[in-house]
Amino acid sequence: MSDSLERLYHAVIAAKDLDPATSRTARLYQRGPAKMAKKLAEEAIEVVIDAVNGNSDAVVRESADLLYNLSVLWVAAGVRPEDVWAEMDRRERVQGIAEKLPKASADKPHAAKPVSDKSGAASQAAKIAPPSASENVARRPIVALQSSRLKKRR
Fold it and tell me: 103: how many CB neighbours lie within 10 A of its CB?
């Protein structure tokens, strides 16, 4: 999966400076980050609506649109896919891959702790230590919604 997103990311970089009359990506860049964000939000809403309505084919199509618009916004924001993968790896170590960190934990980066060498002196390059047991967040059980609960409310 990350290979496809990497290729998409690089294709967005290549297309951003094309002619806006012929390139959707260049047109988004011409209109600026607010338009990019609006398109991303629209696609996310479309995915949600299709999922709630049980239309899995549409969820697939709209998810591809969502990932495209996310890639466009990443490029504009200077975020690389490997930055996102590194954050996902960090979260998996802290709480598990299928969990979202609580905002309080996600917003607090772990403090750099100097590591002592054999002589007892602190190392010049402070290394990031893994979170202590007190910093770990308790894992929550994974809960799946029944498809009958996803039907649109009337």
Answer: 8
Please report which helix (H) or strand (E) contains residue 38, including its range.
helix 33-52
**Tally of CA atoms within 13 A in the half-sphere of 34 that contains its CB:** 1
**Contact (CB, 8 A) for 94 and 131:** yes
pLDDT digits (tens, 9 = 90+) for 105-135: 555 554 444 344 444 443 333 333 444 444 4
Going by C-beta distance under 8 Å and a sequence separation of 6 or more, which residues neighbour residue 30?
20
As assigned by CATH, the class of the 2-79 domain is: mainly alpha
115: phi > 0 → left, psi -120 to 50 → alpha, else beta; which? beta
Task: Name the β-bridge partners of 127.
Answer: 113
Q: Residues 52, 151: contact at Cβ < 8 Å?
A: yes
Q: Domain locations in the chain?
A: 2-79
Structure tokens belonging to residue 100: 């979202």
The answer to whether residues 16 and 25 touch, using CB atoms and an 8 Å cutoff, is yes
Strand 112-113 vs strand 127-128: parallel, antiparallel, or unpaired?
Answer: antiparallel
Neighbours of 39 (CB within 10 A): 20
Residue 15: C-alpha distances to residues 19, 26, 124 (Å)? 9, 6, 43
pTM above 0.85, yes or no: no
